[in-house]
C-alpha cells in the first residue's frame, strides 16, 4: 500500500467509516460472489419434503425445508446417498408422489404452469441421432411453448451467445462433453426460467470447459436468475456460490447464506499484514475485545479478526495501520469445504441419533401393536 493511500485511509478513520472505506478502496474482494438482487423474492421453496420409496425403507429425504432466493448461486451438497438427487427429481416433477410442498416462483410444482419458471440441466442426456444442434434447440423451444418465429430467434441468439453458431449444423452427439453441456443449458433457457437446477453439470468436463460453463452461469446469475447446483467439487462451488444447503442422511444440517452462521452479531474480517502483529497490538486487541486467530494460508501474516462492534474493529485496524502495513483487509467467509466439515460432522451425529430414535420407536410401536390384543383380552377377562 503506497503512502498517499495510507494517509487517505487514516483520514477516513476520522469520519468513523473505516471498515466500509477500506473495503471500497483497498480490498480485493471476491468479485465472483455476486450480490443477490430482489433478495426477498423466493424462486424455490421446499417445505417439509419427505420421500420414501417403499414402506420398509427409510425415507430418502425426511422433512426437509429450504429456500432459494432470486439471483442466488445456491450450492446443494452432500455425500452420495444424502438425498440430493431425490430432492432434485422431486422439484423438477420426476416424482409425482411425495409428502410436503414445493413451490417454484410461488407456484406449486404440481401445477404445469410452474414448469415455465424452471430450467433443468441433468447430469447427462441423449440427443436424437440425426438432428443438428440448431434443429434440436429450435424443436425443443417450440415444445416449450415458443412460436416457430420465436424459437428460430431464440436458437440463433443462444448459439451465438454460447459461441456455437459455427456448429449449428453438427449433431450434438458429435460434440465434446463441454459442448453437450452448453446445448443442455441452452435448451433449459428457451422458456426464460427464473430458476436453473443442475445435477453434477460439470462431471467429466476438462478444466477449460468447466471454467467456460461456470462463466456462463455467473453471467446468468448477474441477470437475476437463480442457480441451484448439486456438485461434489466443493472448491469449484466455493468460487461462485453465495448460499448453500447441506444434506446429511436425508436431513438438512445447514441452509442459508455462506456467512450466516459465523457472522451472527459479529464483524469478521481476513487481515493480511506486511509484518507479524506485535505483542502491543495483541494486547490492544484484547482491550478492545477484538479476537485474533492465525489463518494458515499461502500468504504470510494472515489473521482472522472478529469483533462484536464495528467501532472496536475500526479502532483496532486504525492501530494496525499506524504500526504496520495492511496488505489486504476483507470480509471473511468460511469456505464451503469448512462449512461442510463443520456441519456434516455435527449433523451426522444428529442424523444418526435421530435415525436410531425413529427405528427404536418403530420397533416399540410394532411390539405395542402385537401386545394390544392380549391386553384387551386380559381386561375383558378381568
TrEMBL record:
Transmembrane segments: none
PROSITE patterns, alphabetized: ABC_TRANSPORTER_1, ABC_TRANSPORTER_2
Keywords, alphabetical: ATP-binding, Nucleotide-binding, Transport
Pfam family, one: ABC_tran
Domain ABC transporter: 44-274
ATP-binding in keyword set: yes
CDD domains hit by this protein: ABC_DR_subfamily_A (cd03230)
A GO term, aspect molecular function: ATP binding
Compositionally skewed regions (Basic and acidic residues) per UniProt: 361-382
PANTHER family (alphabetical): ABC TRANSPORTER ATP-BINDING PROTEIN (PTHR42711), ABC TRANSPORTER ATP-BINDING PROTEIN NATA (PTHR42711:SF5)
Similarity remark: Belongs to the ABC transporter superfamily.
Protein name (database record): ABC exporter ATP-binding subunit
Organism of provenance: Malacoplasma iowae DK-CPA
